[in-house]
Amino acid sequence: MTAPSSPAALLPLKIIATGVAVPANRVDSSALDTLLNKHAGYVEKRSGVHCRFHATLDVSQAGLAAQALQDALRRKQIPTGSIDLLISASAVPMQALPCTAALILKAAHLPPGTPGFDINSSCVGFITALQVAAGLLNAGIYKRIAIVSADLVSRGIDWDDEESSLILGDGAACAIVERGDGSSGILSSLSETYPEGSDLCEIQAGGTRRNPRTGMTDKDFLFHMKGKQLFRQAAALIEGYLARLLESSGLTLADIVTVVPHQASHLSLEHMRKRLGVPSEVLVDIYRYHGNQVSASIPTALHTAFTTGRFTPGKPVMLIGTAAGLTLAGMVLLP
Questions:
Q1: Which residue among 19, 41, 158, 276 is the one 20 to 30 A from 253 at the CA level?
Q2: What is 11-178's CATH number, 3.90.1280.10, 3.40.47.10, 3.40.190.10, 3.40.640.10?
Q3: Full strand arrangement of the beta sheet holding 14-21
Q4: Max Cα-Cα span within the chain
Q5: Within a 13 Å sphere around the CA of 68, how many CA atoms are in the beta-carbon half?
Q6: Per-residue pLDDT of the chain (335 residues; tens, 9 = 90+)
Q7: Contact call for residues 269 and 287 (beta carbons, < 8 A)
Q8: Cα–Cα dist 326/186, whole Å
Q9: What are the residue boundaries of the Beta-ketoacyl-[acyl-carrier-protein] synthase III C-terminal domain, all occurrences included (predicted)?
Q10: Is the pTM above the cut of 0.85?
């Protein structure tokens, strides 16, 4: 594949480092078999997950995010003080106010005055944050931005909802980005939201909809998903969406060297692989050992690509995922 000849086709952006963090508490599917009174092997067969990580109650979301940030800084020996903006791209905030970015800045001990803000587009927040960061970097407003996605989704598991409870895992991931020299960047980015699917994946409490004054129950704070309906709607949309994303990049699927998808479920990953028609080695699949980490899913998979030689200069990479909303988002990058 030959890189695009026109610099105008590329929005400059360079990922210079990535990092990850997971809680210490690993939960094997065999342990859930016992917890849920299932026969041996049931949970792994049903979910496709061998193990996932669930934070104990003494672990904070901001603290886990700070660990991922520090991991990225350490891997490339980047000074903490060189970060001039932090974007939190997490699906569920640590609290309603202030923004989660402020709490991550505090936990990570970044210099006082370092700005931070949140972006929330659920499971595809990292893709949205990359697009926003690229715009800010190319406007010359910032020089080095840290994007962190962290979710403790285990805090919202409804164990009565087998469809979602077995697949969810906690985690955090970070990418540090600069404008670069213009040889790497975004070839295309596309986000589409279909709000008729807004009730298919939700946590109703925590905002103005369900609270002590409007009325609420404990269940309102838990994660609920109508998985089959969500899968059907996403499956009906994905083919046309992919065509539009690729058309705007000027590439074909044959040009894409690595695909980094949201690790939604084993069924969605298999469906993605079949729809794309790519060999298994092209698609980054970390689902079996992490489960669905919500917003941390895509950047954790990207970290795997980044550290295993699957994110290399001149070889196009596609990030793609679906999210609550229903939102489809994707990006084609030239590393």
A1: 19
A2: 3.40.47.10
A3: 14-21, 171-178, 144-151, 85-88, 116-118
A4: 60
A5: 33
A6: 444 434 337 999 999 999 999 999 999 999 999 999 999 999 999 999 999 999 999 999 999 999 999 999 999 999 999 999 999 999 999 999 999 999 999 999 999 999 999 999 999 999 999 999 999 999 999 999 999 999 999 999 999 998 899 999 999 999 999 999 999 999 999 999 999 988 988 988 888 889 999 999 999 898 988 888 888 898 889 999 999 999 999 999 999 999 999 999 998 899 888 888 888 889 999 999 999 999 999 999 999 999 999 999 999 999 999 999 899 999 999 99
A7: yes
A8: 24
A9: 246-333
A10: yes
Structure tokens at 36: 């849920």
CB burial of residue 256 (10 Å; 0-12, 13-18, 19+): buried
CATH fold label, 185-334 = Peroxisomal Thiolase; Chain A, domain 1 (3.40.47)
